[in-house]
Amino acid sequence: MKWALIGASTIAAQYVIRAIRAQSGDEVVWLISGDAGRAAAYAAEHGIVNHGTDLDAALSDPAVDAVYISTTNEKHFPQAMAAIAAGKHVLCEKPLAMTVDEAARMVAAAEAAGLVFATNHHLRCSGSHRAVRDLIAGGRIGRVLSMRLFHAVHLPPHLQGWRINDAAAGGGVIPDITVHDADVARFILGEEPETVVAQMAASGMGQGVEDSAMSVWSMPSGAMVMSHESFTHPFAGSGFEVHGTEGSIFAQGVMTQNPVGEVELVSAAGREAIPFPTHDLYTQGLADFGAAVRGQGRPAADGRDGVRSLAVAFAVRAAAQSGTRQIVNYGESA
Ligand code: NDP
């Protein structure tokens, strides 16, 4: 498959270009940026032949099969709609869009055109998360009572740009990290949050946007989910716990971009370390995407997953803003 990258981004440079090139036969053939000089420099650094600021030039190239969109969040919707109109498969970064309605329109357009549309929720590609999901699905902890997600990190200096000060670009910890946690809970528990209560704060980094959030979600099964996200916590670590009637799972250090961390099952039988595969998360996501394009499966997180996780995140923000419990509005994607 031949890819056009839309966005001269950090995430593409650090993870996704390598993950594309790890697929047999996949190539990156275009880089589109909003700035010609940055496009040229980025393309040179990463060995990408075609580059520029003209999105239509990349989209009208018949050699391009798929696009990866990793611009700032307000650009995802128009760029995805243009790519879909041009008949390209789309891997789009989270959050899919600035509103649930826009995200749903992107996904509906791709479905109507018969194109693969995926959301880059990388965490569900990790061996640790897949191992936990399998434990729960296999009944190892009985009926799930609750889940606690710990995702309070310290945003590194090179990412302290639009995320902490630009609401118009989709800044804030809720569209950045809560959206991932929503997808993790949906993936691990296999059900959709129904209502949320929440609070949010600017605790030292956020300027005009929240840098911290805590929320509690109710699930249709009756399980409760507690979620904590932040940009300002240098030493908190990350992970999640799932507690059931027959056991508890502790997944520590697993809310990351790398295949690290530990998973432990605790039950009446004692403590058991759970092994899991340590493949690269993004390479797995690209492999799942390629299989879907070949008609051999589905993306790790498809477009509807992206819409639903976004709906949960925006319900958290609405709950924090209003101080009232919110029913998650999945729109027509539910
Ligand atoms: P960056 O800030 O690195 O890149 C976003 C945009 O900012 C780029 O498209 C680029 O615009 C512009 N830009 C980048 N570097 C510079 C610079 N030095 N000077 C001026 N402009 C610059 O963002 P991220 O890579 O962190 O995030 C991009 C998207 O990916 C977001 O939607 C984010 O939510 C998502 N993301 C997802 C992750 C995941 O694991 N799924 C992890 C990290 C991010 P242009 O293209 O116009 O050159």
Outline the structure in words:
One of its GO terms (molecular function) is oxidoreductase activity. It holds the Pfam family GFO_IDH_MocA. It comes from Albidovulum denitrificans. This is 1,5-anhydro-D-fructose reductase (1,5-anhydro-D-mannitol-forming). By secondary structure, the chain is α/β, with parallel strands linked by helices. It has 2 domains: 2-121 and 284-301, Rossmann fold; 123-279 and 310-327, Dihydrodipicolinate Reductase, domain 2 (2-Layer Sandwich), CATH 3.30.360. Helix content is 35%, strand content 24%. It is built from 10 helices and 15 strands. The protein has helices spanning 10-21, 36-46, 55-59, 76-85, 100-113, 127-137, 162-165, 173-189, 281-293, 303-322, and strands at 2-6, 27-32, 50-52, 66-69, 89-92, 117-119, 144-152, 195-201, 212-218, 224-230, 238-244, 247-252, 262-267, 270-273, 326-327. Strand 11 and strand 12 (247-252) form a beta hairpin. Helix 8 crosses helix 10. The chain binds NADPH dihydro-nicotinamide-adenine-dinucleotide phosphate.
